[in-house]
Amino acid sequence: MARKLHATLKGAGAKPDMVTICLVPATGAADARATATLARDLRRALRGFGPTLWLDETAARGVFNDDTVGKMQSKFYRSKMTGWMAQQEENYRFILLQADAGASPWSQVCVSQADKILVVARASNPDPDPRAHERRLLWRRRRGAATELVLVHDPGEPPRNLRRFRATRPDVGRHHPLRLEAEEDLQRLARHIAGHAVGVVLTGGGGHGLAHLGALRALEDSGVPVDCVGGTSQGALMAALYARHASTTHMLPRVKELVGALSSPRHLLTDLTLPVLSVFSGKGVDRILRTVLGDTDIEDLWLSFFCVSTNLTSGGLSTHTSGTVWRYVRASMTILGMLPPVRDDQTGDLLVDGGYLNAIPVDVLRERMGVETVVVVDVEDNDYTAFRNLTPHDGGLGGWRLLWERINPFGSWLGRWFSGPSIDEASPASGGGGGGGGSGAREREGTRERRLKAAAERAKRRVDRADAISPFLGEESRPTPEMFDASELAARRERERAGRARPRATIRTEYGDVMDR
């Protein structure tokens, strides 16, 4: 009880080590059956993160011999039950309480004791409105308790109707599309509850953005789970595709379709316009994005997704976690002068590329999505330390000098900085296709693949290390960022000073250390 009081006083954002979860069926018998199945499977999944106790009304009746559960209209017996539950928190990290499909005294006690309430509903239900018993139960939840929605889908059914269910439940925070027969969905929900969700942030990079596919595949091959994904510019597009398919195997055909359409001379020529506002009208890009992403809502993606854009109207950063996927992805990758700004249907604001204000939106993932373990995939790998040697140019820098520095292979740092990668240098990291050929290109491709796999293996060890931390340690006992391979960062900086070539794809952790070297 002291732990609950401390969490309440500390605020809703605090994450207690021990969690009591209440599962509430949204409607009648069908949702009650889905809730019972989810409770049993979730207990098994949560056991991987700590001792777990599961209680429904039948199990609770077996604990007491004096029919305490049946007499909980009385304050004495209700206090007896809540006191017993509080004692169990000494032995279990997670307590799963399964409520009934009604506002019974047992269900009321379950909701009042919960740190987190999961409202379980079936996506096939034609009526998303909450029933009277759900409203009464949620009214009894304690202060600071989080309410989330679990929408159960039938086998082979894509996520749908999440926006409709959330629109009638303004108090719901996160949502979780789930298939009961899919083990990966159950494990993802368990990681969110346990505070061990893994998020991936994909940066921009233009044509280099296709390399995100190779990095995501390397993470999959190494067994690193991805629960949340987001990005900016080209990274927003690749993140949306991955969030929709939750697999690089199913994502690859869409990426090939996207590359073929965007590189088509017909598309480029037909989308040209009088360059008063932009070089291209944007109609062709809109059509292609709608083809590969569909008219899907952000809420109807298998993985939690976000993207960021620069808001020209407010002059700040906009974060998008709801609405039509393709429209906000289009906004996040809109380069000024090349494509016209996108008008936000919800606010009427004008949006352009998010990379202008936040090229690596790690803070968004941690603050808005509640993810602490973050992997950043940076395909640009800009080495801004090269500007340390910049010499004064007497107030100006002529274009002729820049041209000379670019065409002169023996020029100073300026020539090296402005030289771009060739097609065969940039494309193999994406995992397929690409220009160039011969043994040299294949050798470079193999080198980059090995680097990506090695980086993904290091990310997996970091994730496993975080999972191994005892959930009962106090904040003062938890590892600090300095404990995680500070020598690796120092080695990277030393290599940069030595002037070695940079890889085209880099995976960084939340601690800032570069892992793909």
The CATH class of the domain at 198-377 turns out to be: Alpha Beta
Shape: elongated
CATH topology of the domain at 198-377: Cytosolic phospholipase A2 catalytic domain
Poorly predicted runs of 5 or more residues: 4-16, 385-390, 409-437, 469-489, 500-517
CATH architecture name of the domain at 198-377: 3-Layer(aba) Sandwich
Major β-sheet annotation: 8 strands, mixed
Structural class: alpha/beta
Overall residue-averaged pLDDT value: 78
Quote the beta fraction.
5-15%
User: What is the oligomeric state here?
Assistant: single chain
Number of strands: 14
Q: Would you identify the CATH H-level superfamily of the domain at 198-377? A: Cytosolic phospholipase A2 catalytic domain
Number of helices: 20
Based on CA atoms alone, the radius of gyration comes out at: 26 Å
Q: How helix-rich are the residues, as a percent range? A: 40-55%
Report, as a whole number of angstroms, the end-to-end distance: 49 Å
